[in-house]
Amino acid sequence: MSDTYSNFRELQLHEQEDRDYRIKVSQNWHQVLVVAPHGGNIEPYTSEIAQWIAKGDFAWYLFEGIRDIEVRKLHITSHNFDEPTLLQALHEAYIVLTIHGLKNLAEEYLMIGGLDTVLATLFRRELQNRGFTVKDCEQKYRGERATNICNRGRTGKGVQLEISYALRSRIVEDAECRNRFVDAIRSVIKAQELR
């Protein structure tokens, strides 16, 4: 399904902030930025997962659909997503991780994309070691365009996690699963920060 709006300015002309969507950001920018560009009702639970990963240690940014009907209209594909607050945050970030949602209701898995293949491999290994299923990335989820928001930080490369709805639900509902998932991601990021 193609997007209704090709960029943020177009969306802004037709949708109203705090009625249709909202933008939430952490108080301070940081060299690590965790982003949920399709949060709220667009791709449910991606906002919560992004904030759990960031905690108080990393910067976070959420673009959330807050209406109940036709919320899919608020989805802007990652390589077209150009909301100014996010672009400013990306200028500060060396590590960019974006959290996305796949529609799969039955299977608990994720796919990892983005141009930072080293970091993606580390995430994959750590998540698999902790019992999560990581599938090979389908073409449309690879996040290989330079304009994809995960690749627009200071290094020009980042990582995106595409998480099935079934796994997102489990992360939200099951504290043990959530802790395992969040700790896996955070441990990899923390190790990179120390380098």
UniProtKB/TrEMBL annotation:
This is Phage-related replication protein. Gene3D superfamilies: Poly-gamma-glutamate hydrolase, zinc-binding motif. InterPro entries: Gamma_PGA_hydro, Gamma_PGA_hydro_sf. It holds the Pfam family Gamma_PGA_hydro.
